[in-house]
Design brief:
A hairpin with an 8-residue loop joins strand 2 and strand 3. The protein has a four-stranded antiparallel sheet. The protein starts with 14 loop residues before the first strand and ends in a 12-residue tail after the last strand. By secondary structure, the chain is α+β, with helices and mostly antiparallel strands. Helices cover 24% and strands 25% of the residues. The chain has five helices and six strands. Helix 2 packs antiparallel against helix 3. It is globular and about 40 Å long.
C-alpha cells in the first residue's frame, strides 16, 4: 500500500454512530457535479448496480486515461465488497485543488450511519477522483490505494 505523508495519517478515535441527517449534510449536494462525492456516489452505484456494472454511466464517470484498466469492473466489485462510502472526499495534504480521495470503509453495522471522529481503523480502499475542467465535473481515476497527484494525468 502507498505510504501516506504525515499530514494524511489518521489521528483520532475512529468511526462513531451518527444520524442520517448529519451524514447527508456532510456528503453535500449529490446533484452538484462540482461536488466530488456526487461522482463517488454515482461511481459506487454504477459499479454495484443490481444487473451488473452500468458501463454506459461508468464511461462518463471515469477518466479516459484509466478506461482501459477497468476491464469488466469485477475487480472493483470485489474490492468494494461490503464496504460503504465515507461522507467526504478529502484533498491530498499537498493541497491540489483538482484531486480528492473518497474512502470505502467496512462498516461495523451496514444499517448504521457513522461519521469519522479521527482514525478510521477499518479495512478500506480509496477512490481517487480528479476534477476535469473541460467537462466541469469530477471523474474517477482509480480504486484501491491512493494515487498521488503527481501520478495522475494532466487535468484537462
Amino acid at each position: 500500500m502507498t505510504e501516506l505523508p504525515k499530514d494524511d495519517q489518521p489521528s483520532g478515535s475512529g468511526l462513531v454512530p451518527d444520524d442520517d441527517a448529519s451524514a447527508t449534510a456532510d456528503i453535500g449536494d449529490l446533484s452538484d457535479p462540482r461536488n466530488p462525492m456526487a461522482t463517488a456516489v454515482a461511481f459506487y452505484n454504477a459499479v454495484m448496480a443490481e444487473d451488473g456494472p452500468d458501463i454506459e454511466n461508468l464511461r462518463l464517470l471515469c477518466t479516459p486515461e484509466s478506461w482501459g484498466a477497468w476491464g469488466d469492473f469485477l475487480q472493483v466489485i470485489e474490492m468494494i465488497g461490503n464496504r460503504g462510502l465515507a461522507t467526504r472526499a478529502d484533498p491530498p495534504s499537498t493541497g491540489e485543488e483538482d484531486v480528492r480521495y473518497a474512502k470505502l470503509v467496512s462498516l461495523p453495522d451496514p444499517d448504521q450511519s457513522v461519521r469519522s471522529d479521527g482514525d478510521t481503523l477499518v479495512a478500506g480502499k480509496i477512490i481517487t477522483l480528479q476534477f476535469r475542467p473541460s467537462s466541469g465535473y469530477w471523474r474517477v481515476h482509480g480504486v484501491g490505494d491512493y494515487i498521488r497527484p503527481e501520478d495522475l494525468p494532466p487535468a484537462v
